[in-house]
Write a structure and sequence with these properties.
Distance between the termini: 27 Å
Strand order of the largest sheet: 5-4-1-6-10-7-11
CATH class: Alpha Beta
CATH topology: Spore Coat Polysaccharide Biosynthesis Protein SpsA, Chain A
Largest sheet: 7 strands, mixed
CATH architecture: Alpha-Beta Complex
Number of strands: 11
Number of domains: 1
CATH superfamily: Spore Coat Polysaccharide Biosynthesis Protein SpsA, Chain A
Number of helices: 8
Helix content: 25-40%
Structural class: alpha/beta
Radius of gyration: 18 Å
Order of helices and strands: EEEHEHEHEHEEEEHHEHH
Amino acid sequence: MKNIVVVFAGGVGSRMGSPNGPKQFMEVRDKAIIVYTLEHFQNHKDIDGIYISCIEGHIPHMKGLMSAHGIDKVRAVVPGGETAQESIYNGLQAAMDDPETTGDETVLIHDGVRPIINNKLIEDNIESVEKYGNAISSIPAFETVAQSVDEGKTVDKVTARDLMYVLQAPQSFRLKDIHATNHQALEDGLMGKFIDQAHMMNYYGNTLHMIDGFRGNVKITVPLDFTYFNFLVESGEFKNVTGETIQ
């Protein structure tokens, strides 16, 4: 295998407040959000394998969705962790344990509740890893960002917006490099302390290379995000954003 994906879906979605379980399994047009996410990688010719970390009690349901929707590139579904970083590490470990991998693969790390991506973003991630060893999907900040040191009571510092970027996903690396750095974080007692993989890799002194994401690539976190995704699918705009047809 040359290019693989770790999709982490270990969260319970507390900010969504869904009465029907974790947000990754919420449905739009009778299809779970995570299935929309997986289909981008399933249908891309350059993706050879997918590893999913999922809430342990929902693994049978996840496998049922894969079977129902023809997601057959998945090589392992493993339990998630207490944090997103732990879930990612579990997925990376599953990839490293696969006898078909060498560690030299490009691995795209993607959130199960980011279903609005496209082929170009996948290809740009792969190309950047081949050139530079990593790829961080990002967009320029479109609103002013302030720093507060008293939990949002007062503004401590206003950043220069033209220097600020919003980091998205996928975030991509060489499999052996990102696995080793996560293992180092585990040994250092820092597992779960980082916002995302870019934060961790920056902490350990790596130079990170940004590629262009796009504003529609949202992480479905709160009900408004779900409303936006539902609108894209029901209106047909999903195809215009992603270039892909709803199946």
